[in-house]
Design goal:
By secondary structure, the chain is of the alpha/beta class. The chain has 2 domains: 140 residues, NAD(P)-binding Rossmann-like Domain (Rossmann fold), CATH 3.40.50.720; 163 residues, Dihydrodipicolinate Reductase, domain 2 (2-Layer Sandwich). The protein is built from 9 helices and 14 strands. The strands form 2 sheets. The protein has a 7-stranded parallel sheet, with helices on one face. Helix 1 links the parallel strand 1 and strand 2. It starts with a strand and ends in a 16-residue tail after the last helix. Bound molecules: NADPH dihydro-nicotinamide-adenine-dinucleotide phosphate (NDP) and N-acetyl-L-glutamyl 5-phosphate (X2W). NADPH dihydro-nicotinamide-adenine-dinucleotide phosphate binds next to helix 1 and helix 9. Belongs to the NAGSA dehydrogenase family. Type 1 subfamily. Pathway: Amino-acid biosynthesis; L-arginine biosynthesis; N(2)-acetyl-L-ornithine from L-glutamate: step 3/4. It is found in: Cytoplasm. Its EC number is 1.2.1.38.
Length: 325
């Protein structure tokens, strides 16, 4: 069976990773690529290592009225740039939006695929979670659903590789000289990912996510997100690990580890690692989560969601092991 897919934003980091995954997918056939500045270029010019059967595909100027026959469209456009165009895509084309325009927007399912896979079946519009939210929420979901922690006053300390900022952008923070041998906090108090994290914490717990704190830091590495989360709860490390192992028992992509996870464990994969340390005497739970920001944080989860909405095994095209070292 061949499912015809397209990618708009293919020249970017998220779109390029989607291209890489689709190139190795057993059912998806890439028939359409689109963008803005890269329009007119062949894929081999953007990605010299692309498989020969895709090399000659020419990037089209993004125009939702000029789509070929498509089953699924992956959108990987700058947040703020996808809503208007995607609203004009014919209803018969399923969409997975990797950007941030449709998270918790009416008519769009929030694609936290490892937590609510059954809710993806039958959807035609899926909003992929952000990279920090998926690392965070996959770690917190078992504890919130199992009432092991309080939903209020959660503190998330996050680290991200530079590719999280995308390929574009002239900001010198993301240049080699600006990022190498350097650590930079940013987005304090008001990062755009806070609303989707708060909403999902409330969905999972049934309580209020008041007092949420989230501080990301840029780290001089290419890929990877690590979140270290502090919460209140009267539980033990073993209870947290057991609860998470049960919660994710049937899930293909979440690994519960008794060692603190490392970003390289996930590189190039759709895996999500979670671990915990808890001290009931201090009413303290530390939850940790790791993803590849371009894998589970973007294109990997987008392909997982596309598999789910197309009725394929959710692991199709995503079974490769991470890159190591
Ligand atoms: N990088 C990451 O780790 C993650 C990114 N995301 C989200 O995914 C989205 C894409 O991010 P990322 O790949 O990093 O960004 P990049 O800057 O690397 O790529 C942006 C892409 O958007 C295209 N584009 C920009 N403006 C237009 C336009 N007006 N019309 C058509 N295409 C356009 C560019 O095409 P062209 O070159 O042809 O102009 C390019 O392919 C963003 O919303 C981002 O927040 C989500 C999770 C993680
Ligand atoms: C390093 C860096 O800048 N990372 C981005 C995260 C990318 C992402 O997930 O963004 P969307 O919500 O727009 O999809 C950020 O902090 O905004």
């Amino acid at each position: 069976m061949s499912i015809r897919v397209g990618i708009v934003g293919i020249s970017g980091f998220g779109g390029g990773e989607a291209m890489r995954l689709i190139a190795g997918h057993p059912a998806f056939e890439l028939v359409y690529a689109a963008g803005e500045g890269s329009a007119g270029r062949r894929l081999v010019e953007l990605f010299p290592g692309v498989p020969p059967r895709l090399a000659g595909l020419v990037v089209q100027k993004w125009d939702p009225e000029a789509l070929p026959e498509l089953d699924v469209l992956f959108a990987s456009l700058p947040t703020g740039s996808s809503a208007e165009g995607l609203a004009r895509v014919p209803a018969g084309v399923k969409i997975v939006d990797i950007g941030g325009d449709h998270r918790y927007v009416d008519g769009w399912a929030y694609g936290l695929a490892d937590v609510w896979p059954e809710q993806m079946a039958g959807q035609t519009r899926v909003a992929n979670p952000g990279c920090f939210p998926v690392a965070t929420l996959n770690a917190l979901a078992p504890l919130l659903a199992g009432k092991l922690i309080e939903p209020g006053n959660i503190i998330i300390d996050a680290k991200t590789g530079i590719s999280g900022a995308g390929r574009g952008g002239a900001d010198s923070r993301f240049s080699y000289a600006g990022s190498n041998e350097n650590l930079q906090p940013y987005g304090l108090l008001k990062h755009t990912h806070m609303p989707e994290m708060a909403t999902t914490i409330e969905r999972l717990s049934g309580g209020k996510a008041d007092g949420l704190v989230f501080t990301p830091h840029l780290v001089p590495m290419t890929r990877g997100v690590l979140v270290t989360i502090y919460a209140r709860g009267q539980t033990t490390t073993e209870q947290c690990l057991d609860t998470a192992r049960q919660f994710y028992a049937d899930r293909a992509f979440v690994r519960v580890t008794d060692q603190p996870p490392q970003t390289k464990w996930a590189t190039g994969s759709n895996l999500s690692f979670v671990s915990y340390a808890a001290d009931p005497a201090r009413d303290l739970v530390i939850a940790m989560g790791v993803v590849d920001n371009l894998g589970k944080g973007a294109a990997g989860q987008a392909v997982q969601n596309a598999n789910l909405i197309c009725g394929l095994p959710e692991t199709a095209g995503l079974e490769g092991a991470p890159v190591w070292p």
